[in-house]
Amino acid sequence: MRNLMGAERGSHNAATAALAPFVLSVVTWRRGHLKTGEALMKTIIEPFRIKSVEPIRLTTRAEREARLKAAHYNLFGLKSDDVLIDLLTDSGTGAMSAAQWAAMMRGDESYAGSPSFDRFEAAVQNLMPFKHILPTHQGRAAEAILFSILGGVGKNIPSNTHFDTTRGNIEGSGALAFDLVIDEGKDSQSLHPFKGNMDLEKLETFLIEHGDSVPCVMHTITNNAGGGQPVSLENIRAVAALAKAHGRPFIIDGCRFAENAWFIKQREAGQGERSITDIVRDCFAVADGMTMSAKKDAFGNIGGWLALNDDELADDARVRLIQTEGFVTYGGLAGRDLDAIAQGLTEIVDEDYLRYRIGTNQYIIDRLDAMGVPVVKPAGGHAVFVDARAWLPHIDPLAYPAQALANRLYEIGGIRGVEIGSLMFGRQPDGSEKPAAMELVRLAIPRRTYTQSHADYMIEAFEQLQAEKDSLKGLKVVKEPRLMRHFTCQLRPL
Ligand code: F0G
Q: Which residue from 25, 189, 234, 403 lies 20 to 30 Å from 411 (Cα-Cα)?
């Protein structure tokens, strides 16, 4: 068991000092793992005990090297049984609670008017006071429905940073997607407390320039594509006010809303004593709608929703919902899934859970940082992002340093992350190849699935990687599909 207090205290103080230029007067950076008025306990504790376990198959390094070779050096090609700690995504990979499994038995599978839908709708509206709630099978289905109505050729849609599927659905409709995150959000070392914030000046200019071609303003909380960085309540309100002043609907991509609210509570002036539920309600009270993947901050293994206030828009969306997902009271889900999500939404706002979740991420990032591993800072909500370009400067971006790093991490420890760099983004529509803006490895942490000792194991794997890193070689793509090559391409070490 590690003693965390010294290190945690030190790092938070360092972070506070570094934040000062931006936020001295507006932010109090509270230590996330302490409860006010309670004895100081040092250890990050999982606020649950384990009733049911899934074995992890332990493998040797030689086995993993053979598996990776057979998968053509593409981690997506591995069988998950050959992975010890799977950090490919935090989406749908969380552990459900006993109460969620019990709720699933209550699931009513009626085609129309199921009580499971009533419980789902009530749980969503308890946190997000929207008039119309449309269940979908996952987040991208909500996006597809929304942009089939609001998108189209000639439309321009801004966000802090659109997630890939959001961008895909916007561009698929013929519209254009624009990322207007603040400059600090693009600097992996900036310690700004809300690196997911929208640049308000850029947004205002955008709204003036593009006028009626802007069907809505989006905001992603937390900003996944920008490192899981949070958005302040102040920024959400300012974006809402700008959208309103220009007569544009304001839609929040709320996938990680509870993590975002936790950061608001920790980092934003005047929010420290408020409940997570109240903060969440305030975030959504100023929006006209939301898209959601229940596979993140609703503890679902599947699910999502589209929420809207506008009656006409909701009517149109319901027609699309019935065409593509299912009837309005189940969308793309079974009744039991609706009940699991309804219960999950009561658990995700629990502060003991959020303290542990963000605390673990902070813990890993602090230790990697202390070791000299370049990580995106400050800690975001759901993932650790390692800057492979900075750590492996000897590998050319077009030899995919982040893929080389992710692959070696698997060979060393059986840990599976994902490359977010030139392998994912480098291929251009004209067939040429161009380095991506950053070469990152994302290690996304599934919810309630792994423990602190898994975190320590990861850190130990990085210690070994540190010793081996100068020997790492780049890779070459030997076979790739026409689009989205990172999922299925085959690679060879150089
Ligand atoms: N928006 C954000 C911010 C997301 O992170 C995701 C999914 C979606 C929308 C789409 O939701 O998967 O339910 O269709 N992110 C996952 C990830 C896939 O690994 O980051 P979905």
A: 189
- For domain 61-90+374-493, give its CATH number from 3.40.50.2300, 3.90.1150.10, 2.60.40.10, 3.30.70.1350: 3.90.1150.10
Phi-psi region of 226 (alpha: psi -120 to 50; beta: other; left: phi over 0): alpha
What radius of gyration, in Å, describes the C-alpha atoms of the chain? 22
- For domain 98-347, the CATH class is alpha beta
- Is cis: bond before 60, omega within 30 of 0? no
Cα 454-359-374 angle, rounded to 5 deg: 75
Q: What is the pLDDT of residues 93-106, one digit of tens each?
A: 999 999 999 999 99
Give the ligand 1 atom nearest the CA of 303: 13
Query: To test the ligand 1 pocket, which listed residue (296, 384, 442) has its Cβ within 8 A of the most ligand atoms?
Result: 296
Instruction: Please enumerate in sequence order all residues whose Cβ is within 8 A of that of 191, keeping only pairs 6 or more positions apart, or say none.
Output: 15, 18, 19, 22, 377, 378
- Residue among 105, 134, 131, 103 nearest 347 (CA): 103
Q: How far is CA 400 from the centre of its chain?
A: 23
Query: Nearest to residue 191, comparing CAs of 46, 53, 71, 14?
Result: 14
Give the three-class secondary structure for 440: strand
pTM for this structure? 0.91
Task: Say if ligand 1 is within 6 A of residue 91 CB.
Answer: yes
Tokens of 390: 């900075």
Give the pLDDT confidence of 436-475 residue by residue, as tens digits: 988 999 999 999 999 999 999 999 999 999 999 999 999 9
